Amino acid sequence: MGMPWIQVAPGAPYFITEEGNAWTPIGQNDAITWPDFAGLFRRKDMAAVEGHLAYLVEHGVTVLRFMLEYAQTENRYFEKPAGKFQPNMIKLWDDLFALCEKYGLRILLTPYDTFWMWIRWNHHPYNQANGGPCRKRSQWLLCPETLKIIKNRLSFVAERWGSSGALFAWDLWNEIHPAHAENNPEVFNEFVVELSTHLREVELRLYGRTHLQTVSLFGPVLYEHPIVADVIFRHPQLDFATTHFYDAKTINHPKNTVASAICTGALIREALEHLHQPKPFFDSEHGPIHAFKDLHKTLPAPFDDEYFRHIQWAHFASGGAGGGMRWPNRHPHVLTYGMREAQKNLNKFLPLLSWSFFKRKNLNHEIKISSPALSGFACGDEHQALVWLLRKDKIEKNGLVSKVAEPVGFTISIPGLTSSRYLISYFDTISGMVIHTEEVEKRGVEELALTPPPIVADMAIAIRGDKV
After folding, report:
1. Model-level pTM?
2. I need a labelling partner for 234 at 20 to 30 A (CA). Which of 12, 34, 75, 146 fits?
3. Please, are residues 304 and 329 in contact by the beta-carbon 8 Å criterion?
4. What confidence score (pLDDT) does residue 13 get?
């Protein structure tokens, strides 16, 4: 029997397998040309790729976000010419799906690398000048002939690999943008309906069920074109929502590891407010893109490891599904060992809460913390809560949070929890260990009040009632 398919939990904004087991997306962006997966092409080094997948599983990774082609070069097009699927690329994806099934990893698949496709449009097979269907890149979402060939690609992929549970979900269009439609975002809805409906019809015909669907967005577009929120967050045919966290001041070019976390918490809260009905949300791309791409700087590993870990926990504790998906933006273009340890430790935390029943709301502004030295990130419902606390008063000159500061004592109260007995687990995000547990009885209308162990740098807290 193959891997079970992933579904949205009924009544909770998280994911489950079709067997009913909780499943959390922990992973990052990868590409078929980057070092960890370059050996797939023409099977140049399959052993290295397989060893890497085993390593990922050992470090708690559950999902990889891939683009079907990576258009930065001329030799990884999935079609060349348009409509002719390349045998080397078909074999590459045959191998990748087989390996992911072997190791229990899943893929969030987006059919086009729209970033490099835009930049290198003169070379792309879809360009009419190269025999393709589309005259201008600004007409990708408008051209009827281009829509036909996009649907043709989706049909091919669904027929070839859609039976696999290793396919977590479809990101139908990477970073959908008004520039793809003559600067008219009003066409987004119809475009998504066309792709979503077509793909669902193909999968239902072939398999009697459908994989989950989303469409990703470069986050700052929300402020330039508020109308796109209706598609990204509230489209009735999309199963979950994803955006890309590229805040110019704190994430794209970070000066310290605290501001980026605070910004991430704010972006998660804002995203959840867009969701009129609860559905899973996560950031499917973030990273120091300006520092890396424009300034040609690779962040020092100790700084980048903490920046990664802080964003991950701010994302998770604020109500995102999983820890967000980093775009490496490093040289070499891979995640560090420290980032893998952070992913592993997030995975260790998962059993402390019941995700299939967690009807979370963001509580970043609602929790009360007695010490001004701490920033709080939280989400909860009537029976469970998740809190992450970050020290913000002791930032070293190198931008890292001090690990030798005097521990700060404090109290915290969490609203919304019903009268019950709660198991409280205090979790060290660096070591990946529960450092203390206690049982607390909450009665009446008063908020649940806790006195956690003093904090040097940061701490996560799982609060689980006896009714889940």
Report:
1. 0.98
2. 146
3. no
4. 98
In angstroms, the CA 435 to CA 6 distance is: 32
Whether the per-residue pLDDT at 208 is higher than 70: the answer is yes
What's the mean pLDDT when you consider all of the chain? Answer: 97
DSSP letter (8 states) at residue 294: I
Ordered DSSP codes for 206-228: HHSS--EEE---BTTHHHH-GGG
CA–chain centroid gap for 50, Å, is: 23
- Residue 73 is classified by DSSP as S
Helices (H) and strands (E) in the chain, counts: 11, 20
At 100, list the tokens. Answer: 């992911």
Residue 1 has pLDDT above 70, yes or no: no
First to last CA, the chain: 30
Rounded CA-CA distance 401/377 in Å is 17
Tokens of 157: 């992929």
> What distance separates the 2 farthest-apart alpha carbons in the chain?
71
Q: What is the pLDDT of residues 270-329, one digit of tens each?
A: 999 999 899 999 999 999 999 999 999 999 999 999 999 999 999 999 999 999 999 999
How many whole angstroms from its chain centre is CA 77? 25
